[in-house]
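Replying to the earlier thread about multi-chain prediction with a worked example.

Input:
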Amino acid sequence: MSEPTAEEVEEREAFLRVAERARAAAADLAPLPRAAKDAALHAIADALVARSGEIVKANEGDVARARENGISEYMIDRLSLSTERIAAIAAAVRQVAALPDPVGETVRGNVLPNGLDLRQIRVPLGVVGIIYEGRPNVTVDAAALCLKSGNVAMLRGSSSAFDSNTALVGIMQDALRSSRPTEPQSSTEVPADAVQLVPGTSRDSVKHLMRARGLVDVLIPRGGASLINSVVEESTVPVIETGVGNCAVYVDAAADVDMAVDILVNAKTQRPSVCNAAETFLVHKDIADAFIPKALDALRAKGVTVHGDDRVRAYDPEKVVAATEDDYYAEYLSLDIAARVVDTLHDAVVHIRTYGSGHTETIVTGSQPAAKRFVALVDSAAVMVNASTRFTDGEEFGFGAEIGISTQKLHARGPMGLPELTSTKYVVTGEGHLRG
Amino acid sequence: MSEPTAEEVEEREAFLRVAERARAAAADLAPLPRAAKDAALHAIADALVARSGEIVKANEGDVARARENGISEYMIDRLSLSTERIAAIAAAVRQVAALPDPVGETVRGNVLPNGLDLRQIRVPLGVVGIIYEGRPNVTVDAAALCLKSGNVAMLRGSSSAFDSNTALVGIMQDALRSSRPTEPQSSTEVPADAVQLVPGTSRDSVKHLMRARGLVDVLIPRGGASLINSVVEESTVPVIETGVGNCAVYVDAAADVDMAVDILVNAKTQRPSVCNAAETFLVHKDIADAFIPKALDALRAKGVTVHGDDRVRAYDPEKVVAATEDDYYAEYLSLDIAARVVDTLHDAVVHIRTYGSGHTETIVTGSQPAAKRFVALVDSAAVMVNASTRFTDGEEFGFGAEIGISTQKLHARGPMGLPELTSTKYVVTGEGHLRG
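Result:
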């Protein structure tokens, strides 16, 4: 290990100053009532709209640098902010304000035989670190969801969006300051430190966040598999993995062929770049003759390239590309899909266990026993019957908003709404109770 | 890094063979109905009793080695098994069989506006790794709780108990084998691989478990702070921290003095070696004159040494030892307690935030506003009012049994019963639903 440079030491110290302010703010934010948090969210929305000129200007700098660096138009589109987009971001903040507050909810409670009153209630997690890609709207979305659930957000966006994120976080902090009644000091105000940007744009600034155990309560990385894997490997702060989706559509022997084609096409093509898009389809051998030719036609009409095994290729050896192992593992996020014929439902389950990412799988079938068996045997965050994989989404599930889709089993699994940003504590009330 | 020795390579390969068998067993165990799991638990209990002679003999070897190594009598008592203790362990397994099965429970569910049926149901975590100290009863307790919740247990006890644990796990696996109907193969049988002992006794065997991401779903270390910290630092498998308890009793200005003395003495002395015993008491200055002399007398009568600040020592400078910073951080697990006078309830909260481990804190007070404020501001797994800290316990809370007491905020917090050994999945049922 080489000696850290003066710059590195300074960056680490700047990080610790921010993290300690975040920690202190978390203690003040946690007990605040809903009204204080909602007022703060509306103040943030107002300020974003009022100061959208500043935001657009900062964003133009990021976009210009991205163009110089030869970033793809798709990524530049995700990076870009306009007055209209900022208005939409502000509207989303107001929607978060309108959601119920999970904090204080009694999860369970009863009076024990000895008369002790036992309640398990929801409390904020504390400080939530979010590592994400070059989409500045996430800066505000994540801050709003954290604030509403009583958590301090420590935001670490892509360095490509640093100027935009700096402007957005500065405006949010100003809004929290100005939403405070000037006199007398109210005990229900949200501290300006409740929204924090991790200082610096170096790789080290991510490392500081990952090693901030005791200051940061949980890290949520949002992005590609390599980012998430590196966070999981290096972090001593507990991590919630999100977003990698290698989702499969299984067409059972008892499927309605037209329904299966429609679900497959919707799951693959309705929005191919997202984690709940289908990346593989598996076809029971008994329905292959009826299903595969129709499916290939329908997918081709949408511009999809199929990567199939020999049994799929037999239906159209010229247009179906030969699939490799890598195809079955792939999260394409493009107009590609892997395909395989299976002999049994169980073989489909084994394929999913082997290659899937545990996000969403769907069975198309008219058979109730087949549906029941698939649901029991497939171990994914969402298992669907006769529905498109595209429905795995916080908004679609009625949660109002989501911070991400967890593909791990601890704490939260599937779309994470506000309750998933909380922990619980037990409140035990006695009358001098002693243990005998 | 030096080249691994042939022995190290062999140990790692042996670990991977066991972990892969565990992974495969998890898939078979997860969908089993309650009856199959309960039958397996009763078969285990029967076998432990029937073969207790073998267990005692294996245990004698461990105990003899422990004596040679000069282990304390206290530790030897924890390590030792007798026919009576084995009968108690078997009885505990039957109690786990009698608990409700958390798997399959619907956590929430509704029909979405578009007609999709959405249910969130409990599913097993998969493979649960447990790292624990030299108490062979934990081998069986943990295996039973995992089995009942549909999880495969990967057990890594102290090397001091390796022979005992090998005997116990061998007997449990045999019991699972013989509980299988011989013919025809039933689909509801629990696989013998559902209980696994991590092979080897070297430090590396713990490392293999900590790096088995993808094979092991969660690690639960049970033991002292240094074990838990090293697991947290090194593990890429998600960890649930348990068991470090630096618990405080806060005696508020409005406390009933006699109740406060009784709670303090109970919390400190009823069982000093456990994590929910009190290690600190904090006294509001306005009640110090009334409370401290009585408390010092009562604690002294139980053989407790008080480590106090100057304001506590003023009441008995000869017998109260001067407290250092380390005393406030200490989890004594002995007849020692740290003490401090505070000016306000808020100062008590700040002390707890600074030095506490987030396990259990209690306030003794007759004031409802003070109780409410303490409950709101103290961020611990359990916050109590007018009750002994000793009540933070799965049995006491009515959960029937516990795998440990989580002091972290993710996934589970406080006593962990069977539901805390589960994850969830979303089951979504449509009729050809497409996303528009």
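Confidence is low (pLDDT under 50) at residues 183-187 of chain B.

Feel free to reuse this layout for your own posts.
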